[in-house]
Amino acid sequence: MATTNVALRVSVPEIAADLPSFDGPRDASRELPVKHPTFPALPVGGPSTKTLQVYASDVRRFWRWRAKYDSAPRSLDAPPVAIGVPDLLDYLAFESGRLARDDSWLLSAKTLRRWVSAIDHDQHVRGLPRPGSDSEVVSFLRGLADERRRHIPPPAPITLDQIRLIVREAIFSPKPVRFVDVRDSAVVLLAWAAALTVTDASELRFGDLTRIQEGFELHVRSLRDDQRPSGTFRLLPRGSDVASCAPCIVVKLYLAHSAADMPALDRSTRIDALRLQSHLCESDDALNIDPSTPMFSAALRNGRPTSRALSVGSLATILKTRAAPVGVVGPRISFGSLRLGFVSRAIEVGASIPSIIQQTGPLSLTELASFEEQFQRRSWMPLL
Question: Could you give the CA distance from residue 294 to residue 284 in angstroms, rounded to a whole number?
Fold first, then answer.
């Protein structure tokens, strides 16, 4: 039974009105002298002391390089002179080309940018022009950052056939079925069918499910903005294959939760019997469960579900753990793979872009680029 938390708020004036008043005549002779401490003046703006020390080291590094490769080397103790743009570009070109033992770049673009900032600060303090503000130096650093920016490949889509393999391996294999098997199957299948992000899945409750004629409607509350103040609604329709029928896995997840209060043996027997049942989505029985119960709950060691929802990290680990036995492996496997797999399937059956976005919710730039590639491939299908 759901409970309601009531917060009592009392304003400060109401509390102060009940306190006794201590206002009265003051006796200066009974007061202790107060000595106010004095603090040194703090510098306004500018780099910190530690940053200045790092800058000084970076500038000395430049002059050591200059003394090593200059035709007329000069002492490091000599007063510095203006650093020209050509010298700075030669210095950056030399240092940016150095390689580590594993043939990777020894220095990052961020380190070289800090060196330029150190030289600019040193020149500015001495009243000399700053070479780092030159357009050639700025273009060099920008191009170096673009070249060495770590490329993150898009997630690999998980197909519908792979989803069916994952579900069959979890709850339709000869081995006994546990609560975590039903829960993990629901995580994978519902995240694919509803195009959920990992954050969406971590915040779902049983109260977000509504039974409709087509199956279930899922209320995703994590995606709220000005245009959707109450979130989005995702359709979970019935499927022809029991291994990819989202309403069936919802009912099985509910039955697994309802067996939580049973003795351990009876609970295991009831949950294991779910793998022998095919389509349970045809039943019109209501899901009599606390609406605040997390759909994807953590479990104790004895297999009993708790009232604590799985974290984002746990959900991501479940996906990779369940996908590995059927050959779906790799660093690119994530909840984005489920979303891309759903979109790829929707494009194959001829779904329109508005209907896809209505089911997926907001899309990232990476997902939009992958979707565009899928549409381009589909446009060539009639010619092949």
Answer: 22
* Mean pLDDT value across residues 312-317: 92
**Cβ proximity of 310 and 298 under 8 Å:** yes
What is the widest separation between alpha-carbon atoms in the chain?
Answer: 102
Chain-centre distance of CA 349, in angstroms? 30
pLDDT, greater one: 8 or 247: 247
- Structure-token pair, residue 104: 């990777």
Q: What is the pLDDT of residue 118?
A: 92
Which H helix or E strand runs over 110? Answer: helix 109-125
How are beta strands 232-237 and 215-220 bridged, if at all?
antiparallel
Residue 10's pLDDT band (cuts 50, 70, 90): very low
Q: How many C-alpha atoms does 157 have within 13 Å on its Cβ side? A: 19
Question: Distance between CA 46 and CA 292 in Å, rounded?
Answer: 52
C-alpha separations of 314 from 128, 197, 219, 295, 311 in Å: 56, 13, 22, 14, 5
Question: What is the C-alpha separation between 338 and 217, in angstroms, rounded?
Answer: 19
Closest by Cα among 149, 237, 233 to 193: 237
* Mean local confidence (pLDDT), 37-63: 72
Which of 157, 214, 189, 203 minimizes the C-alpha distance to 345?
157
